[in-house]
Amino acid sequence: MNFSRICPAFACFLLLLAIAAEPPRILEGHAGSVLGIEYSPDGKLLATSCRDHTIKLWDPRTGALERTLTDHTKDVFDITFSASGDLLASASADQTIRIWDTQTWKAKAVIEGHTDTVRAVAFSPDAKSLASVSLDLTVRLWDVATAKPLRTLTGHTARVKSVAFSPDGSTLATASSDRTIRLWDPQTGETKSMLSGHTGDIETIAYSPDGRTLASSSGDTTVRLWDIGTGKARATLEGHTAEVDSVAFAPDGRTIASGSKDTTIRLWDAVTGRLLRTLTGHIGRVESLTFSPDGRALASGGGGGDTSVRLWELGR
Question: Between these two residues, 8 and 208, which has the higher pLDDT value?
């Protein structure tokens, strides 16, 4: 098409449409659902974890597989980098947490204590403590330097599936199949408040970069945005037609991504709740999502028969 013969505004529209429609790069190698996905803080690595019991490390620029970690003996549900990028923590159905040195890719510690599947892990912002949540209904805090337990938080009445520290480290949020989110003081283990409103299991939670908003995704097909100051839901994002398995904030806090069992990824305006774009391509549920540190790319992990990792260029 000769864009010079079209009015400039329409030409720009067509160009943006072409960029938005650019297909994702597809990374193949896992043999099961990709349950966890995260970029390293410098954006040079993409880590994925899977029901095939492995963690894979990819070069997101080339799509090349750099390394596979095989120490876990069951499904690896979650992975997370420390803020400095020198550590990676993983959570598994083998009831252990592993802390990996990202220079050697050797496990510095194997943490035991949960009595059922460990579903998610999160480093505190200063990486001095690690939080974990489990199907055993507990939330546990661990000393990263010694791998010793700090405290166990109880109160959820069903399996605990997601965990996140606030950006300033003063609050720990956990989400459960009991359809509640609990906000804890990680220093004392006391519950600060409880957020309720979802009508299905809560699958994942994520803090906004400024710590003022918490996003949650649920089996009730919605994403909710919670005002941390008031404890009230300020928006309910509707549009998915099945369970929403993953949610993530862009680094600038302006966009939220959600991935669903309906096989789509939706991008939302974090302020207005308006749907910005729907990404299609996965042939199964979208289990996991993460933005690149510069916000220009989104990585997604498939499930339900889709074992692919997809890298979407957002053109931001």
Answer: 208
